Amino acid sequence: MALIVQKYGGTSVGDTERIKNVAKKIIESKKKGNQVAVVVSAMSGDTDRLIGLAHKITDLPNEREMDVLMSSGERVSIALVAIAIRSMGEKAVSFTGRQVGMLTDKVHTKARIEKINAGRIRAALDSGHIAIVAGFQGITEEGDVTTLGRGGSDTSAVAIAAALNADVCEIYTDVDGVYTADPRIVPGARRLDKISHEEMLEMASLGAKVLQIRSVEFAMKYNVPLYVLSSFAEGGGTLVTMEDETMEQVLVTGVTLARDDAKVSIRRVPDRPGIAASIFKPLADASIVVDMIIQNVSKDGFTDITFTVNKADCKKALKIMEPIVKSIGAAELNTDENISKVSIIGAGMRNHAGVASKMFESLSKDGINIQMISTSEIKISCIVESKYGELAVRILHDAFALDKINR
Questions:
Q1: What residues pair up with 300 in beta bridges, in sequence order?
Q2: What is d(CA 340, CA 219) in angstroms, rounded to the nearest whole number?
Q3: Which DSSP category does 127 fall into?
Q4: Cα 278 → chain centroid
Q5: Helices (H), strands (E): how many in the chain?
Q6: Residue 206: predicted pLDDT
């Protein structure tokens, strides 16, 4: 008998018919003699609908109240899944994040899990129930509701799998695995049978919507076997696992596109010690993640600083930056949301030269200008104008022959 944790995303439970299909799939796993714990997202579109309601009231809704609002979507879906399973003759019980003791820090709308008390889930499993747990949500030690950020149900699932010492964590979504690129952008994209944790971390952080980055971090830290599978088709799937020698034989594993970045530029910043800290520390204190940073060469005692943040944090970042820009005597503060980030990722990049030049040359041939560049051992990211984002992905997929990748 295996202990399996399954996670179903919003599209998998998008309506009552899909919920019934998910219930059947869960029951099939149970009837094979397994203990099954299930983590469920809100029904497709529900979270966006709730966010939209709040923004009809104010541009900057209180984050504590936003967590209370957004967490309600998962309560609906876990109840409906449990009702569906019970209607089919199996025992099921639903739990909110609060009920399973999903303790997080106090950062609202993007909280991090600190501890899970898995006792109620284990007791339910031991009594023959299927445990249905609300993803994406937790509570602080003071009892305030928190949410884990976009894709947080993936993190909930892997964290619960780690807490239960599960044999496997299966992430069911609307695609049948991890691809070399988004198949909606590149029809010739290929599904990968396996991918390393490090590559998946980069892909998740750079726009691939298959898994949330913190779920991969949990899987790597606690050695949780992680599969990405389709809710709507049998077979396929991608194993996210430890890197092996064969993975470095492939130069580039995938191309990603992120459309959720915004560029913030501060012109004529006085070039003296401590200025950068005075700009970025308040952003860090507000839990705003800064990605790329470029500082121009100083001229006449002034420089320009440009950085990127998530679009969802852009208004908040501007509110923080406006008084700082004035206090340091900088000339101007500008933002640009008309950008996309295109990236190539591959473990093989560690040991091969010429990858960056090939990427830049391929983009330049089609007249795509690169605004910002960021690199790590296994990825290169470029900021380009939004209208060129999908074209850039197709160009790079062809340039590195990812339609012929064999892994």
A1: none
A2: 28
A3: T
A4: 29
A5: 12, 22
A6: 85
pLDDT of residue 74: 97
**pLDDT at residue 353, rounded to an integer:** 80
d(CA 271, CA 302): 5
Q: From the centroid of its chain, how far is CA 267?
A: 32
Look up tokens 């709308």; give the residue: 109
CA distances from 169 to 3, 21, 23, 38, 297 (A): 9, 19, 17, 10, 48
Contact partners, residue 125, CB within 8 Å, separation at least 6 = 3, 35, 36, 37, 131, 164
Q: Within the chain, which residues score under 70 in pLDDT? A: 244-249, 406-407
pTM given for the model: 0.79
User: Cα(381)–Cα(395) distance, rounded to whole angstroms?
Assistant: 14
The tokens for 121 are: 């889930």
Bridge-based pairing state of the strands 194-196 and 191-192: unpaired
How many whole angstroms from its chain centre is CA 308? 17
Round to whole Å and give the CA distance between 220 and 211. Answer: 13
Q: Which token pair is 201?
A: 């971390």
Task: Calculate the CA 96 to chain-centre distance.
Answer: 21
Residue 387 token pair: 């209208």
The domains found in the chain, sorted by start residue, are 3-174 (3.40.1160.10), 244-407 (3.30.2130.10)
Q: What is the dihedral of CA 226, 232, 235, 241, to 10 degrees?
A: -10
Q: How far is CA 90 from CA 16, 28, 247, 284, in A?
A: 18, 11, 42, 47
Amino acid (one-letter) located at 146: T
Residue 7 DSSP SS3: strand
Q: What angle do CA 94, 224, 35 make, to 5 degrees?
A: 40
pLDDT of residue 233: 78
Q: 């994040």: which residue's tokens?
A: 97
Q: Are 199 and 247 contacting, i.e. CB atoms less than 8 angstroms apart?
A: yes
DSSP state of 256: E
Q: What is the DSSP letter of 211?
A: S
Conformational region of residue 28, where left means phi above 0, alpha means psi within -120 to 50, and beta covers everything else: alpha
